[in-house]
Amino acid sequence: MNISKDLYRKKAEILIYFRKMAKEPLKEIMRIAERETRSKKINDYIKGITDNLMLNIKNKAYVEKWDNPLLLNNILMVAYCSYIVMIECRNQVWRYEYMAFSRRIGELWDLFCQLLWEYNINTEVKLFEPPTFKEIKKNLQEDVNQFINNLKLSNKEKKDLKDYYNKVWLLVTSGEINMKLDVHFKKDSKKYVVDLKSGFGSNEKGNTNRLLMVASIYKMLNDNYECLLFVRSTEDETNHYFQTLKHSELWKTYCGDEAYIEMKKFVGFDIKKWINDNVNWKKDLNKNTIQYLEENNLDLYLKW
């Protein structure tokens, strides 16, 4: 693949590259009996090609001193083309049904939007590693122990109070809560944690409860956190799980075009315009794949 500044204008060439690279490995993978294994192997293989190509683009951009918008444009185009070929190959090794396909399109949207922060053009935005639940718990326990030690109580009373406090922790959770969300960034001395969702399905109860718990913990920390929820679908396409988060006062929620507008405020890049200008699932997917999707009404999920 010849990497140049205008690679992002060569969608057809990038698609040919990915399809060519996947052709022979796909033949080998098709010999595997288990569909789940076939699916994972082809997805991992295309992801490996994509990661390598993106690394080469980054190196080229560094040497030739590309500006950040130019680098991001090229990264987004490569990512989108990789998704196209990944969907084509996955459908060959294991035909999509509606649950798997709708979920996959949503997952790819999440990953695509995360690139805006990974390759962000706003120099004021900096990514950071979120604290783990174990770290938060340890710091809070130390603070509480210090508070109890300073109380005018007997040593036995202090010990009993600490024991009760530790029992409460056991009731709250028998394990650690995953504090990691899709994006964690700083801007103007404020910290933001972001969850990206393509939409809300009927199976979102567990995830909704986790998001409420995670946001509650972040709000408890004295570190100026703000929790942002960006949803691709419009609000009238969401369900009561989204409404629960919206009215919780823990999350600032944005749907549809509003989500794209808000993302642009932070990263300085109009991803909605990019999608309108470059993303065309029905035209870019090969004929066999789009025919299958249309015959099974799965093309309804081809929207970002």
List the helices and strands and how they pair.
Elements: H1 11-29, H2 35-64, H3 68-93, H4 98-118, E1 126-127, H5 133-149, H6 155-172, E2 183-187, E3 190-197, H7 205-220, E4 225-231, H8 240-246, E5 252-255, H9 256-267, H10 271-278, H11 281-284, H12 287-295
Parallel strand pairs: 3-4, 4-5
Antiparallel strand pairs: 1-2, 2-3
> How many helices?
12
In angstroms, what separates the terminal alpha carbons? 28 Å
Which sequence of strands runs across the widest sheet? 1-2-3-4-5
Cα Rg:
23 Å
Mean pLDDT over all positions: 93
* Low confidence ranges: none
Summing up helix and strand content along with how strands pair, one would put the structural category as: alpha/beta
C-alpha geometry: globular
- What composes the largest sheet? 5 strands, mixed
Name the helicity range.
55-70%
Topology as a string of helices (H) and strands (E): HHHHEHHEEHEHEHHHH
- β-strand percent reads 5-15%
The tally of beta strands, per DSSP, is 5
What does this structure look like?
By secondary structure, the chain is α/β, with parallel strands linked by helices. The chain is 62% helix and 9% strand. The protein is built from twelve helices and five strands. The protein has helices spanning 11-29, 35-64, 68-93, 98-118, 133-149, 155-172, 205-220, 240-246, 256-267, 271-278, 281-284, 287-295, and strands at 126-127, 183-187, 190-197, 225-231, 252-255. A five-stranded mixed sheet has the order 1-2-3-4-5, sandwiched between helices. Helix 2 (35-64) packs antiparallel against helix 3. The two termini are 28 Å apart.
